[in-house]
Amino acid sequence: MKGKIVYQTEPMKIEVREHEFSEEVEAGSVLLEVLQTNVCGSELHVFKGHHPTLKCGVIGHEMIGRIAKLGDNVKTDNAGNPVQVGDRVVPVYFVTCNQCRECLAGNLHHCIHMYKYQGQSGTFASYYTVHHDQYFFKVPDGVSNAEAASANCAFAQILFGLDKIHINPGDSIVIQGAGGLGLTACAVAKERGAKVIVIDSAPSRLVTAKKFGADELIDMNAYDTLDARVNRVKELTGGWGADFGLEVAGVPDAFSEGIHLVKQNGKYVVMGNITPGHTTAFDPGLLVRKAIEIIPANRYNPEYLYKSLQFLERNAGKYPFAGLLDAAFSLEEATLALEKSANREVTRATILVNK
């Protein structure tokens, strides 16, 4: 079969190449026709050369596909749902071997073999192989392509991260950043009964955050100092500070600010800063005095992809998840999609492979 792939030759340079895809599928594997794939923040890290290991190769990881061919012994997805050619599915984008030290300890999201296919296989392509050591799940009929396309990264990541802090009804959470991760976090936290406070510098993103359940918005243009933002969060939380914090801005200075926004004995999840070597001034004494627990969250355990699809099905029509993908491009326009995303000209770009 012939198709196309988007290949990064070096940072900031990509090519759309004709590619032959094998019709032979290994036992336990699944060949997908890619329907839709998104420009996630991770793609921007790769594109700019900030990823610690991936500098060249086939890019893309967040997607929905249609089963083109099933390998031997594949009759169900990893939740036990029967699958057949033509079904829509979403894959976990990394390897889970279930045999290494990390997997056996329950840390499937840190499998030491997770990057086994990195650069060789990516979702910015006509076809994508779900290998035998990757999980995948069938998309419910009531969930659209646009909604499901973000499930295997942004959505699953948020559910995994927020499960680490156990939000209860009436708790408050301050979310730093109203991009795709932050908006998803708004909806998830709202469904758990939290008071949701969102901080961002883009007015359009703050308007969108309201549609995803945000109760209070803090515009960094109006509250333009750390003290102003801290005081505003305290005003909104009875003078205490937020019970929980979530950093999804991807800006090192947001991390150092976070412990100022969270109350004493609060918990702070760090998710957006994923590039090693980028630093910020930090006050460890304040961290100790306030006894704040910092919780990093990188990737997710595979079951969270299934939970994401369940959340989308359960809350169909309640939040405008499909609208998060506010700009569509073809494979040939992949460079443009990446550039507009990097310049924050779009909230979240998507690539329609057959556009």
UniProtKB/TrEMBL annotation:
Superkingdom, taxonomy of origin: Bacteria
SMART domains in UniProt: PKS_ER
One Pfam entry name: ADH_N
Domain Enoyl reductase (ER): 8-353
CDD domains linked to this entry: MDR_TM0436_like
Family: Belongs to the zinc-containing alcohol dehydrogenase family.
Stated name of the protein: Zinc-binding dehydrogenase
